[in-house]
Amino acid sequence: MAIQVSATALPEVKIIEPKVFGDARGYFYESFNAREFAELVARGVEFVQDNHSRSARGVLRGLHYQIEHAQGKLVRVVEGEVFDVAVDIRKSSPRFGKWAGVKLSAENHRQLWVPPGFAHGFVVLSDSAQFLYKTTDYWYPEHERSIVWNDESIGIEWPIDFEPVLAAKDRDGKRLSEAECYV
């Protein structure tokens, strides 16, 4: 197998570490293999859209989700470093409101699988970061929702000592107690 998979504090959210083949010329790795993903991470997943964002240091995006057309996301960083977070927002889950976070970087080549039913966000720790992700459903702006990044009831331990740069939708996100959540 070309990937190693480990669980986070949220068992459904997985860290994927590819086998990297490197020498003096550079490196090579498979960033996605459908067969291995189905065997080791999640069966029956079909990705329909790839997204690419670039953000400056201190930008925090999230915590995003779609209340209808829930998206699973396979995320990675190809430039820089981010702290990436998933929050379980399934009311029927024993881990409702719990979070898991991991540093993703161009150097560690880690990916994070965030299945449908979770809110997702990240903060850029390097001068800039390019963030790539595959989604299991298309983007529907009318169904997009945001939970505020610093909701005390969730208690995410963001590894930052600065006030993050936020889009209006993230600054105005709802508290988990007020947010539309999954059943």
TrEMBL record:
Q: Which UniProt keywords apply?
A: Isomerase
Asked if the keyword Isomerase belongs to this entry, the reply reads: yes
Any one GO biological process: dTDP-rhamnose biosynthetic process
Q: What is this protein called?
A: dTDP-4-dehydrorhamnose 3,5-epimerase
GO CC, sorted alphabetically, is:
cytosol
| Enzyme class name | isomerase
Q: What does the subunit section of this Swiss-Prot or TrEMBL entry state?
A: Homodimer.
Catalytic activity of the protein: dTDP-4-dehydro-6-deoxy-alpha-D-glucose = dTDP-4-dehydro-beta-L-rhamnose
Residues at site: Participates in a stacking interaction with the thymidine ring of dTDP-4-oxo-6-deoxyglucose? Answer: W139
Q: What is the lineage of its organism?
A: Bacteria, Pseudomonadati, Pseudomonadota, Betaproteobacteria, Burkholderiales
The active site is formed by H64 (proton acceptor), Y133 (proton donor)
Q: What EC number is given for this enzyme?
A: 5.1.3.13
Q: Which organism is it from?
A: Caballeronia novacaledonica
